[in-house]
Design goal:
The complex is a heterodimer of chains A (361) and B (417). Chain A has helices spanning 47-55, 97-107, 112-125, 141-153, 171-188, 199-205, 223-228, 233-238, and strands at 8-16, 22-31, 36-40, 62-67, 70-71, 82-85, 159-163, 191-196, 208-213, 216-221, 243-252, 257-261, 264-270, 279-284, 290-291, 299-310, 314-321, 324-332, 345-350, 356-358. Chain A is an alpha+beta fold and 361 residues long. Chain A folds into 2 domains: 8-233, Rossmann fold (3-Layer(aba) Sandwich); 241-358, Beta Barrel (OB fold (Dihydrolipoamide Acetyltransferase, E2P)), CATH 2.40.50. The model of chain A has no long low-confidence stretch (mean pLDDT 86). Chain B folds into 2 domains: 61-163, no CATH class; 193-413, MetI-like (MetI-like fold, Orthogonal Bundle), CATH 1.10.3720.10. The chains are: A alpha+beta (361), B mainly alpha (417).
């Protein structure tokens, strides 16, 4: 069976609230059936607006959204059949868990015995059997969250939207809920559009991530690609940790370029630079730089250790390197005890392939 | 809990509980002193007047004190036949004393409350009593007027013997104790109080309904509008609140009178003929309109405070789960506003049931309420005990409503802000 690659389609969607500023600019986005896609971005980047337009609570100022091939801009929210999990759960406080879950079934006039089966199934999916008669106020935050998830799935929607659903939970609970939601998605194959500003959440859960900034999708790709191969400096800085060098391209070939920083030169991988003389920001992941490299690397430089922070499983070292005092290194705690002491000079090396020369921004 | 066998001691050997009490005693005294002024104020301005009102409404000592000897003599009388000489003699003695003090008029007024016809025969008795000879008072008094020989009138006097009476309460319900000592209703055409009670309930009920219907959308708007508009709207709601009640009522008189602005407008748009202007004042309509407007903020404010706490995402959730906007409103939003509805309705109903100035000014004859009747007895007839009795009936009516509300909705379910 072929999967519908354009199950949800945003076509040239613009959105403005006040007629002066576009919060979403010419959005093009295709979401495949069964996919778990995350809209990730800082607050005010337009991601929640996109979700609200998809749910039907906001109308696009321009452009059209398609769901399963049908234009939905003129369909009111209650006829779209989209499940939604809200930031603050939005459980009906005057109804029991059972009544909350029964609500979408009742409005669809599903017979009671069938509805009961669906509710049982949904509650067991989030392992909350036996909680049916509780009021939402008697549940913990994590349990309320699960009820909200169960409620959004109980009427078997094809598409579920989640608007920062884990924002109010503490760290441990958030992590376990991430896996739980991921497993539910895998087991029932529903399409999920998930909004968050937490990058680790996005990386853990998604098939694909759309990074939003300034009303635009900066990059849409799988989590590993997003982390390993950011296409611009916003994405590189927003996702994960990042060391940057700002400089000017002094020489460029197909796979390599030379970047001149003040009084040194480094080799980098030209991603968005095309010609000599362009300004660029070189991005390098901390774990791609090695101390005292044994291999032959095309970038080897000396730096001075400014700060050592113990993190349990690894140690973070801040180094003043090539005029950048914020260069971060992560050293696994296994090892071969390198001489990491404050003030020491050490040798640091990386491959030019990992140093991505991006737009200067 | 510490038991005797295992008592926790502080370091200096005093039981923990004792030293805790000691430590808290000071704070308790401070707390009490802080509320004391309010407590005394409440006792003086609320508990005392209501106690006095209660006492006044059942107090009937006046006649008891005017005819002490008569009532003492009547103790042996069975009330079947005319009383014997002993009672007449005692009555004569009391009566002469009253005439000396010029208080027999008061007696006649009081006895006339109990039974009509006393006024004239007491006047006659006063004149005749000057020529009375000593002894055989029964014959002499009975010869003054045939009513003095009627056992009914003596029974009426006897009914005034107790120091306390509930008859004012009966009167408030248009009932009285008849000759046989049974509680019966007064004749149909003399029942004024029952009509007033029913009208008071009716007007209070409909004013509450109108207020609710108008306040709900306003409160919803207030709770959902952006701050800058909602502040303006809030001021619009509260502005009348800050204007004198009398001024507002008077402005309704200007609006509603037959040559008033509203009528002019109706005539202007051709809704009514110029020579057939409807009366919108000095009747129930006037009371409804003015009271609804005046009591509206009391409904808006509790509703608003409750609606403010309802997250807009709940309505969205209702819609996204497939409920039409109406279903989402009715099943999700509305039930959550019930505490505010309860508070608002209770507040408006209780205020409306005791409303006075507005119905007095714009209510006319058919729009006055029980409180106007109370005021009438306070100011015009000076029958304070009756006014007190009706006041207490009103108070207990309010308490009954409160109790019913608590039974049906639950008082914990109320939210005033």
């Amino acid at each position: 069976m072929s999967v519908n690659k354009e199950f949800v389609k945003f076509e040239n969607v613009d959105k403005s609230y006040d007629g002066k500023v576009l919060v979403v600019k010419n959005l093009q986005l295709d979401i495949a059936e069964g996919e778990f896609i995350t809209m990730l971005g800082p607050s005010g980047s337009g991601k929640t607006t996109c979700l609200m337009m998809l749910a039907g609570f906001e109308t696009p100022t321009n452009g059209e959204i398609y769901l399963g091939g049908k234009a939905i801009s003129s369909i009111p929210p209650h006829k779209r059949g989209i499940g939604m999990v809200f930031q603050n759960y939005a459980l009906f406080p005057h109804m029991t868990v059972y009544e909350n879950l029964a609500f979408p079934l009742r409005v669809r006039k599903i017979p009671k015995d069938e509805a009961d089966k669906k509710i049982d199934k949904a509650l067991s999916m989030v392992s909350l059997q036996g909680f049916a008669s509780r009021m939402p106020g008697q549940l913990s935050g994590g349990q309320q969250q699960r009820v909200a998830v169960a409620r959004s799935l109980v009427f078997d929607p094809q598409l579920v939207l989640m608007d920062e659903p884990l924002g109010a939970l503490d760290k441990n609970l958030r992590e376990s809920m991430q896996y739980e939601i991921k497993h539910i998605h895998e087991s029932i194959g529903v399409t999920v559009v998930y909004v968050t500003h937490d990058q680790s959440e996005a990386l853990t859960m998604s098939n694909r991530i759309a990074v939003f900034n300034d009303g635009k999708v900066q990059q849409l790709s799988s989590p590993d690609e997003l982390y390993e191969k950011p296409v611009n400096s916003f994405v590189a800085e927003f996702i994960g940790e990042n060391n940057t060098f700002t400089g000017e391209v002094s020489d460029i070939s197909e796979k390599k370029c030379k970047v001149k920083l003040g009084n040194a030169e480094i080799m980098a991988n030209p991603i968005s630079v095309k010609s000599k003389g362009e300004r660029t920001k070189v991005s390098l992941r901390p774990e791609r730089a090695l101390i005292n490299p044994k291999d032959k690397m095309d970038n080897i430089h000396n730096g001075k250790i400014e700060e050592v922070i113990y993190h349990g499983d690894h140690t973070r070292v801040r180094i003043n390197l090539l005029g950048n005092p914020e260069f971060i290194l992560k050293i696994p705690n296994s090892s071969a005890n390198l001489d990491i002491k404050l003030g020491n000079e050490i040798k640091i090396g990386w491959n030019s392939e990992d140093a991505r020369a991006l737009d200067p921004k | 809990m510490s038991s005797e066998t295992k008592q926790i001691l502080t370091t200096d050997g005093i039981p923990l509980e004792v030293s805790l009490k000691k430590a808290e005693k000071k704070n308790k005294i401070k707390a009490f002193l802080l509320v004391a002024p309010l407590l005394f104020f409440l006792i003086i301005t609320y508990v005392f007047p209501i106690g006095d009102m209660l006492f006044r409404s059942i107090d009937d000592k006046m006649v008891t004190q005017m005819l002490p000897k008569t009532f003492k003599a009547m103790e042996n009388w069975d009330g079947q036949e005319l009383p014997d000489e002993e009672v007449f003699a005692a009555f004569h003695e009391d009566f002469i004393k009253l005439v000396e003090d010029k208080r027999e008029g008061k007696l006649s007024t009081q006895l006339n409350y109990t039974k009509n016809g006393f006024k004239s025969i007491i006047k006659k008795l006063r004149r005749a009593s000057k020529k009375f000879e000593e002894g055989n008072y029964k014959e002499q008094i009975m010869s003054v007027h045939k009513r003095w020989a009627d056992v009914e009138y003596w029974r009426a006097i006897q009914r005034r013997a107790p120091e306390f009476t509930g008859q004012k309460y009966l009167k408030g319900m248009d009932m009285y104790v008849n000759q046989e000592g049974k509680i019966v209703s007064v004749e149909e055409d003399r029942r004024i109080h029952r009509v007033l009670w029913l009208r008071t309930l009716e007007i209070a009920f409909f004013v509450t309904v109108f207020c609710f219907l108008m306040a709900y959308p306003i409160a919803h708007l207030l709770a959902t509008l952006p701050m800058k508009y909602s502040n303006l709207l809030m001021i619009c709601v509260l502005l009348p609140f800050w204007t004198s009640l009398l001024v507002r009522t008077a402005s309704w008189m200007i609006l509603l009178q037959q040559q008033g602005i509203v009528n002019d407008f109706f005539v202007g748009i051709g809704l009514v003929a110029d020579d057939n202007r409807p009366e919108m004042m000095y009747n129930k309509t006037g009371s409804y309109v003015a009271m609804t407007q005046i009591l509206l903020p009391f409904m808006v404010l509790p509703l608003y405070s409750v609606m403010k706490t309802i997250s807009p995402s709940l309505m969205r959730a209702g819609k996204s789960l497939g409920g039409t906007p109406f279903v989402a409103f009715w099943k999700v939003y509305f039930p959550l506003t019930i505490p505010g509805i309860g508070a608002g309705c209770l507040l408006v109903f209780i205020l409306a049931i005791g409303y006075y100035i507005t119905p007095a000014l714009v209510g006319g004859a058919s729009g006055t309420l029980i409180s106007n009747q109370i005021a009438f007895h306070m100011k015009s007839t000076l029958d304070w005990s009756f006014a007190s009795a009706m006041g207490l009936m009103l108070l207990s009516g309010v308490l009954v409503i409160y109790w019913l509300y608590n039974k049906i909705v639950g008082i914990d379910n109320i939210k005033l802000g």
